[in-house]
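Before a colleague's protein record goes any further, I have to sign it off. What it holds is a sequence and that sequence's fold in token form. My question to you is simply how this chain folds and whether the tokens agree. Thanks in advance; the entry in question is below:
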Amino acid sequence: MGVRFAIRVRPGARRTAVGGARAGALLVSVAAPAVEGKANEAVRAAVADAFGVRRRDVVITAGERSRDKVVAIDPEPPGARAVLERLLAGGDAGGSSGR
């Protein structure tokens, strides 16, 4: 089984970025609006880019219609837990490659 973690989404942000924490959840800012699933797709792309995986490997397992979500990356990429810790500590993985 892969790695699961909580995220807090900021839709409609100026730029897409992954990094920082709020109440223990990873902050994911996306430029896409929270309309018709656009923000969720942008979240999947941003998380995939931050962890160096394919977008299809990132699944929103809870909170589909909420800013607070749980995502899973399966299969777990090598070093995923270290990347998560770095991002939670404020390391920024800005931008998205559109995977």
